[in-house]
């Protein structure tokens, strides 16, 4: 069983250039069902997150300006989406999907959010198509509810988890680890507990050697009782917004390293899918599906 949060709210108005990346959220569940990786019963559609968990991470005035659709035009441009009620509804459900996924991961070892990975959302602002930071909200939820005392966030998207780093910069209960393209957006980086910025065109051998070294070392060092994994596939050589050169098979091997370490040490892990912007949608779906294939092999 692989618990998977699915969000059937994708029909908010988007500029033409943003419609294609959103398609993956509709196609990925279909692929998982087609291959028998997941069954209908594995999927759950979350409601809105309780606002008290949102306010615990994000500035209230900022959140209220999203809810009221009063965020100023400059802040909206920074996010990259025009605000709409459906878009905010989707953000609140994504956050709740990650929260519920955490609860399910305690039972099954691993849980997924088809969307999520909104790591460019800061305490008091959004950027890079991110408004509410789903894994930060869920991590804080675990701490507040005393379901976890030490959390490790493994962010392997090609873009640094700058919002996540800012949110937890003074929180010793959460260790933020980001491996990203050094020259990729965001061009002004925040400071995670451990940042590794990779040079352009870093390929499989160097990338996987680093992941294989640092993931088990950090788990041993920090001894987390819960792990969040942001499994962006924008590290692929084909990605339009990334500067790395990892192959589809290398990306799959990355997932194996992370998830096998979580399984071996029996640390529950919540996975949010993050970015993926290759020119062909089939490449994006294949790379994201690999993450689920790996989890099915390891956990079933």
TrEMBL record:
InterPro entries: HDAC_classIV (IPR044150), HDACs (IPR000286), His_deacetylse_dom (IPR023801), His_deacetylse_dom_sf (IPR037138), Ureohydrolase_dom_sf (IPR023696). One of its GO terms (molecular function) is histone deacetylase activity. GO terms for biological process: epigenetic regulation of gene expression. It comes from the Bacteria. Signal peptide: none annotated. Keywords: Hydrolase. Pfam families: Hist_deacetyl. The keyword Hydrolase applies. Residues 24-290 form the Histone deacetylase domain. It comes from Kaistella carnis. The lineage of its organism: Bacteria, Pseudomonadati, Bacteroidota, Flavobacteriia, Flavobacteriales. This is Histone deacetylase. Belongs to the histone deacetylase family. Coiled coil: none annotated. The keyword Hydrolase applies.
